[in-house]
UniProtKB/TrEMBL annotation:
Entry keyword set: DNA-binding, Transcription, Transcription regulation
Gene3D superfamilies: Periplasmic binding protein-like II, Winged helix-like DNA-binding domain superfamily/Winged helix DNA-binding domain
Xref: InterPro entries: LysR_HTH_N, LysR_subst-bd, WH-like_DNA-bd_sf, WH_DNA-bd_sf
Protein name according to UniProt: LysR family transcriptional regulator
Family (UniProt): Belongs to the LysR transcriptional regulatory family.
Taxonomic placement: Bacteria, Pseudomonadati, Pseudomonadota, Betaproteobacteria, Burkholderiales
Domain HTH lysR-type as annotated: residue spans: 1-58
One example GO MF annotation: transcription cis-regulatory region binding
Length: 299
């Protein structure tokens, strides 16, 4: 029995498909299947039932999976202690929300490439729910999204936050300085969809002030939200730094009587069972790189 065979068994059992498990290990599906067959040969029993469309664990496989996880954790700890200064190599796939991608993700990638030139970085942009599913399925190594995960299989660390301001176009609000929060019921709320973490702080704000919008206009892109606000299609929130630039240009106005919503906290998330040294290094670089005031194509 080899470490490669145990890795093949563990990731095949915990990823959504053999293809994802093989990709995580940087091998082909046929090589993955070969390692599983070799391990089953050593054990003398099947670990997967392949009668169904997708292979599922046998009772023995279910029983041995926690032991394989413990052995791999010990191996990871051994390798980390033996090679603390060894350069990282291979493939690193991570997911981020659109707000991160439009501000400081390029800075993070530059930091990763500078420190670990042999590491192939593959970023993916999506809403928080998509990133969490990618983590859970084993398709992503880590994710950077708003809020802690509610999924039992995922853990997270707080790395920063972003502040927002209420804004509207001078075309839709004649005197933004004096507009009260209760006026929201007479306007359209331009915002991201319910799957976005930003909506949580908007909902909390509306509950605290006992108001709801007259209409909703939702879109799953920050650039589109900002564009619709500039066109006078409603009121909404934008990241504080972006709002400041657009207000300075005269394209938007601050709603000064609208108290700012609570800051939105961002975390780096990963699977609880993933103990690779890679993740500790990525958490460190993310904490150093985070900056939601960074330049963006939006402005």
């Amino acid at each position: 029995m080899t470490l490669k065979q145990l890795e093949a068994f563990y990731w095949a059992a915990t990823c959504r498909s053999f293809a994802i498990a093989a990709s995580r290990l940087n091998i082909s599906v046929s090589s993955l299947s070969k390692r599983l067959a070799e391990l089953e040969g050593v054990i003398g029993s099947e670990l997967f039932s392949r009668s169904a469309r997708s292979a599922v664990l046998t009772p023995l496989g279910e029983q041995l999976l926690p032991h394989a996880r413990d052995l791999l954790r010990s191996a990871d700890d051994f390798m980390q202690r033996a090679a603390d200064n060894a350069p990282l190599a291979g493939r690193c796939r991570f997911g981020v929300g659109e707000l991160t991608s439009m501000t400081w993700m390029p800075r993070l990638i530059a930091a990763i490439r500078t420190r670990y030139p042999n590491l192939l970085v593959e970023p993916r942009v999506g809403v928080g729910e998509e990133v969490e599913l990618g983590l859970e399925d084993g398709d992503l190594d880590f994710g950077i999204i708003a809020g802690p995960s509610t999924r039992a299989s995922i853990t997270s660390t707080l790395i920063g936050q972003v502040e927002f301001q209420w804004v509207a176009s001078p075309l839709v609000v004649r005197d933004p300085r004096w507009l009260p929060p209760t006026a929201l019921r007479d306007h359209t709320l331009v915002a991201l969809p319910d799957s976005s973490g930003v909506i949580r702080i908007v909902d909390d704000w509306m509950s605290a002030h006992g108001v709801s919008p007259g209409h909703n206009l939702r879109c799953n892109g920050w650039a589109a939200v900002a564009g619709m606000l500039r066109e006078g299609l409603g009121v909404g929130i934008l990241p504080k730094a972006w709002a400041g630039v657009l207000v300075q240009r005269g394209q938007l106005a601050r709603l000064e009587n609208f108290p700012a919503p609570q800051p939105l906290r961002y975390t780096i998330q990963w699977r609880r069972d993933d103990t690779r040294p890679l993740l500790a290094h990525m958490r460190e670089l993310a904490q150093r790189s985070i900056d939601f005031d960074a330049p963006t194509c939006l402005i």
